[in-house]
Design brief:
The structure is a single chain. The chain is mainly alpha-helical. Helices cover 48% and strands 5% of the residues. A two-stranded parallel ribbon has the order 1-2. The chain starts with a strand and ends in a 7-residue tail after the last helix.
């Protein structure tokens, strides 16, 4: 059967988001970590109720050093490092929920993308 992974929303760097919005002449609309917390709590509650594996971005990101600037580009949206950490959190959840589906551990059923032209020409190789 399918395994469900439920992810909470991430926290917000309110000061950075407000300054970005102000510089663009836009409203920050009260985006804050405090306002995100009830949504994060609700997501964790739903995960528990339905037996899903939770990924608590809200709490996990706040435990990271310098998360406000390292993981959030403008106070709201993720940086490259933030996206990488989300991938790592989700990968850990996949391993916990379905170890046989761990990223990197799945069998290849189609040629690797780098072999696409070779496949068209009948010269496919196995991925390394």
């Amino acid at each position: 059967g399918a395994k469900v992974i439920l992810m909470t929303p991430p926290p917000v760097n309110e000061a950075k988001w407000a300054s970005v919005c102000e510089a663009q002449g836009k409203e920050a609309w009260g985006r804050s970590t405090e306002r995100v917390q009830p949504y994060a709590a609700a997501a964790l509650e739903v995960a528990q109720d339905v037996g899903a594996t939770p990924v608590d971005l809200y709490a996990s990101m706040q435990r990271e050093p310098e998360w406000q600037t390292r993981l959030l580009a403008d106070g709201l949206h993720l940086t490259g490092a933030g996206n990488k950490r989300v991938f790592e959190y989700i990968s850990e959840a996949i391993v916990a929920a379905a170890p046989t589906s761990a990223p990197g551990g799945l069998a290849w059923h189609l040629p690797h993308h780098r072999d696409a032209n070779a496949v068209l020409l009948g010269e496919a190789t196995q991925p390394q």
